[in-house]
Amino acid sequence: MPEVIRKTALALTASLALLTTACTGQPSSGANDDASKDTTINFWHAWSAPSETKAVDALIAGFEKTHPHIHVDVVADMTDDKLNQALRTGGSKAPDVISSFTTNDVGKFCSSGALVDLNPFFEKSGIDPETTFPKAMNEYTQFEGDRCTVPLLGDAYGLYYNKTAFKKAGITGPPRTWSEFEADAKKLTIADGDGYEQLGFMPDYHGWESTTEHYFAQFSPTYFDKDGKSDLAGDPAFAAGFTLQKKLVDELGGFRKLEKYRSKLGDEWGPKHPFHTGQVAMQLDGEWRLGMALEAEPSFEIGVAPLPVPDDRADQYGKGYITGTIAGIAATSTKQNAAWELVKYMTTDTDAVVGFANDIHNVPSTLAALKSPKLTYDPRFKTFLDIAANPHSTTTPASVNGGVYLSTIQQFGYDYESGKVKDLKAGLERTARQIDTDIAQAK
Amino acid sequence: MTTVTLASKRRRAALVTAAFMSPWLIGFAVFFAYPLISTVYFSFMHYNGLQPPTWRGAQNWTYVFRDYPYFWPALRNTLWLVVVMVSLRVIFGLGVGLLITRIRTGAGVFRTLFYLPYLAPPVAATMAFAFLLNPGTGPVDSILEAIGLPAPGWFNDPAWSKPALTLLALWGIGDLMVIFMAALLDVPREQYEAAELDGASAWQRFRFVTLPNISPIVLFAVVTGVIQTMQYYTQPLIAGKVASGVIQGAGTQFEPGFPERSTLTLPQLVYNLGFQRFDYGSACVVALVLFALSMAFTAFLMRRRGGLNLAGD
């Protein structure tokens, strides 16, 4: 009988050991598959609008035509949360290739090892990323020398404005500085009881794309100093950005009134977006908005311009915030060579990049594609290509814990715009300390 | 010889007992003991789910309690919901149960009406409430304004977001109503008759006859309510997301507990830390806090059971 007990104990211990290893399993390095053999890979992406998923399908069809032995199963509408979980768990249904709408998580993806370093793949294929991708895009797709992502089209942020409303208000052209913008936003605002018939601009940080990082790009901020510490309280660009936004909130009716109005407006990705419907006359947004706004067939003429700059940086007018969609290969993938073939095609094949950019109304992400004669666009789209090419345009740096520092800044923004926090300087110092603490915790 | 036989009989009996208990024992080991032990273990480790865990000592604990800005607001909100939401759900569920057991005609219709909302999926129910209570376009505020009453901001106002969640919870009262109805119908009629002969008022009959008889069910409702509320995740998350207008997309950030962290609950932190920040260690700390709180509440309530005037005790 003691023998039975011993065996039972052994079996239990073995089961627990198996469970333990199952829960702390390490992703395999996995880049030893034969990409010339017949195989199927999974590709997860974040696009969801019908026109966008159609464009992705066309891109994949082009790849399968040139790589008949590699089949791609595509899954659309995947948020970063879903990607994060799939990247950790792996398995036959998990993605081999992922694409994410935001560059915020690049640092986290690289430092955690969720995505593989693509440098060896670039070397093996004889492609030099430095001469393939624009400088900013080349920078935001790597973290501390680990290139775990690659740009898959880019996004540039600018200003959309209702030309018809501008004419009615007697405004001749788009504002070039924030003080002009402020004056125009007030001129374009038509009150209606405790709401608005037309709002010049929705300044709240919840106003779809009017997030802190999109505003502050115009002030060319330095997020981290040379020691990697948050420079939120040290760089006056941040205080200037927060002050400007708060002034807009107060002058356009106050936070509560604006928030109430915002709760009546349509959502960002639907046809009832308040810019399409004419409820908001100016909109900070990415280049994709142009196609979406035109599809909604608004009753006014759409104007496009770079976002204004601070008055003391008037010579830098034309710049904007740059980010983009990124692609990467899951560390859990056992088909990394086949996955690389897809990533390479989607991100470095000039015709594929141009075709996809044309279909999806995004900024191309290779230098060759940007110059390609096959690139077709509405003349207004040229504004975004220029913003992307502008040397003063900025992006947000990668961080070990992804976009947590941006969430923390945005969270402070909510508290400041609502009046919950009144002392800007003290608030910035406290927020900077929080960012440093969070980064130390993630290391 | 006899002792050997006795000992072997005892051993055999013990083994038979263990064999019969083994399904539960295995379940307990795999689904409770192991996860709990590993949660404690990981709470002292730096672990991102991908690379091997490394020892971190008490750093995750100090980070959560001292440096993680969402912990205390989430704890306060969770405790608020435990106290207010659970109490109101029990009172409301008991009230509805009492009313329906008193109805002579159409009780079935009312039972169905009150039970149906409980069957609605939480995401759909929350989105419907966010639509109904929208301060700009919702019919509730339009009606309130039309009759000259102040219209709250509900899910868009930090002072009203938790009461709005409580309203949503009260709407889905069907489960408690059914349990209370069963308990109320179980109270012996003769006790009511005796109380009536003694001249007891309706309130006295409820206080001295109904309540003592159904107190174990009240305790059950409170304990399960506390545990459920400790795990309250879907409704506040969906309500906050819908009201904030932030649909995850390009450039959008995780924004916990809109508005102003007022709908933030502890389970949301477990998700944020573990699955969004890849910080399993800190997520395990929050999970253990949840576990400890649930245990403390349950122990407190079970002790109070001694103070309840239990029928048949």
Order of strands across the main sheet of chain B:
1-2
CATH homologous superfamily of chain B - what is it? MetI-like
Straight-line distance between termini of chain B: 47 Å
Compressed to H and E, one letter per element, the order of chain B equals HEEHHHHHHHHHHHHH
The number of distinct structural domains of chain A comes to: 2
What profile does the largest beta sheet of chain A have?
Answer: 9 strands, mixed
Low-confidence stretches of chain B at least 5 residues in length (pLDDT < 50)?
307-313
**Spatial separation of the terminal alpha carbons of chain A:** 51 Å
Overall pLDDT confidence of chain A: 88
In DSSP terms (H or I, runs of 4 or more residues), the helix count of chain B works out at 14
CATH architecture descriptor of chain B: Orthogonal Bundle
Q: What is the C-level CATH assignment of the largest domain in chain A? A: Alpha Beta
Strand content of chain A: 5-15%
Organism (chain B): Streptomyces nodosus
Subcellular location (chain B): Cell membrane
Membrane topology (chain B): Multi-pass membrane protein
GO biological process, one term (chain B): transmembrane transport
Provide an overview of this structure.
The complex is a heterodimer of chains A (443) and B (313). By secondary structure, chain A is an alpha/beta fold. Chain A folds into 2 domains: 2-155 and 323-389, D-Maltodextrin-Binding Protein, domain 2 (3-Layer(aba) Sandwich); 157-219 and 233-316, Periplasmic binding protein-like II (D-Maltodextrin-Binding Protein, domain 2). Chain A is built from 20 helices and 9 strands. In chain A, strands 1, 2, 3, 4, 5, 6, 7, 8 and 9 form a 9-stranded mixed sheet that branches. In chain A, strand 1, helix 2 and strand 2 form a beta-alpha-beta unit. Residues 4-30 of chain A have low confidence and may be disordered. Chain B has 14 helices and 2 strands. Chain B starts with a helix and ends in a 9-residue tail after the last helix. Chain B has 313 residues and is mainly alpha-helical. Chain B has a single domain (70-313), classed as MetI-like fold (Orthogonal Bundle). Mean pLDDT of chain B is 89; it is low at 307-313. Chains A and B meet through helix 1, helix 3, helix 12, helix 19 and helix 20 of A and helix 1 and helix 2 of B.
